[in-house]
């Protein structure tokens, strides 16, 4: 729910400069807003509508449940392509990101899913990884990072992307296990260090080091000052090594307040729907969604979302005593989701 909340708050402000966001909505967003006419991605969307961050997280979570702790890469590629087809048919400009698009093009050309993600270094893996954090305990940390790597292999199998996704997943998972946010952020840094050694090499700053640096930058600052520092120094672009440290830095400011955490993250501009989605996922895992004033509006704007039911299924996978630490076989063909499977195949029209 925190992921969806941050995503919906950041829907109208995504891709806008921070000064435009400030001039239009104030220093910090106070409510859900519709997509403005001058935003080519979100114009026309009603207040509270989620974007690709939530949609793709739901797809990933459903496949993780269907695979009993594994994500079938070809089924994931197929679901993502069908999602984008629906977006195009509805006239939406909210389409697949550059790393995912490249990987799925290669899948269509017959390239093995073990090879298609070797260049994916943007924040797509981290934006949708929260369900893995729900479905896998934080300890042992190596098992969580294994699950993160496997879930993103088809689109984002680089050290940078795995590090960022592992950090978000660890932050979520540690919160579910009852750790305070400060400890969860330390586990996030540890997970990023482990993830950086996985996958293919691409040039980029060390994600774990940048998370630690971003946390130091905002420590002791007022929220207003911290937002300026995150905006000017950490960055809110598509790069994993910007978006993930930015999200966790904002999360650190609001360990007990999901609503304020998401409002501030969504006010950053840039790729702030993704930043706010990751912030919301991590903080929400620690606080729950109680006290958020717009939950009814969020649900009404996205009636197809069944996040509580999905969370329950993910927690069942998490608690399964017989789940192996590692599997080398994919689910049988009969286990794969299809158009006739019992999984929710969202045709949301946005």
TrEMBL record:
Residues 320-350 are annotated as: Disordered. Signal peptide: none annotated. The keyword Hydrolase applies. It comes from Cryptosporangium minutisporangium. Residues 320-338 have a biased composition (Basic and acidic residues). Belongs to the ADP-ribosylglycohydrolase family. Keywords: Hydrolase. This is ADP-ribosylglycohydrolase family protein. InterPro entries: ADP-ribosylglycohydrolase, Ribosyl_crysJ1, Ribosyl_crysJ1_sf.
């Amino acid at each position: 729910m925190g992921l969806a909340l941050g995503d919906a708050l950041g829907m109208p402000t995504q891709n806008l400069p921070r000064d435009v966001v400030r001039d239009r909505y104030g220093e910090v967003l106070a409510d859900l807003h519709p997509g403005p006419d001058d935003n080519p991605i979100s114009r026309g969307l009603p207040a509270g509508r989620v974007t690709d961050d939530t949609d793709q997280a739901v797809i990933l979570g459903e496949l993780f449940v269907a695979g009993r702790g594994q994500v079938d890469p070809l089924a994931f590629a197929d679901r993502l392509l069908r999602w984008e087809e629906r977006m195009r048919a509805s006239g939406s400009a909210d389409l697949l990101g550059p790393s995912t698009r490249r990987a799925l093009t290669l899948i269509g050309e017959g390239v093995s899913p073990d090879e298609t993600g070797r260049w994916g270094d943007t924040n797509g893996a981290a934006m949708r990884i929260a369900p893995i954090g729900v479905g896998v305990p934080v300890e042992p940390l190596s098992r969580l990072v294994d699950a993160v790597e496997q879930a993103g292999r088809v689109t984002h199998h680089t050290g940078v992307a795995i590090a960022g996704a592992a950090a978000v997943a660890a932050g979520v998972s540690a919160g579910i296990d009852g750790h305070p946010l400060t400890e969860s952020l330390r586990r996030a840094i540890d997970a990023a260090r482990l993830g950086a050694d996985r996958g293919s090499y691409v040039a980029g700053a060390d994600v774990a080091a940048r998370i630690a640096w971003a946390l130091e930058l905002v420590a002791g600052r007022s929220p207003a000052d911290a937002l300026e520092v995150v905006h000017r120094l950490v960055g809110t672009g598509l790069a994993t090594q910007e978006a993930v440290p930015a999200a966790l830095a904002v999360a650190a400011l609001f360990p007990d307040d999901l609503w304020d955490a998401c409002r501030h993250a969504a006010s950053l501009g840039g790729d702030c729907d993704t930043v706010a989605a990751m912030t919301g996922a991590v903080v929400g895992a620690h606080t729950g969604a109680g006290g958020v004033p717009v939950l009814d509006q969020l649900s009404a704007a996205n009636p197809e979302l069944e996040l509580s039911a999905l969370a329950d299924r993910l927690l069942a996978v998490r608690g399964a005593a017989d789940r192996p630490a590692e599997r080398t076989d994919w689910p049988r063909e009969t286990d794969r989701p299809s158009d006739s499977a019992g999984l929710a195949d969202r045709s949301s029209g946005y």
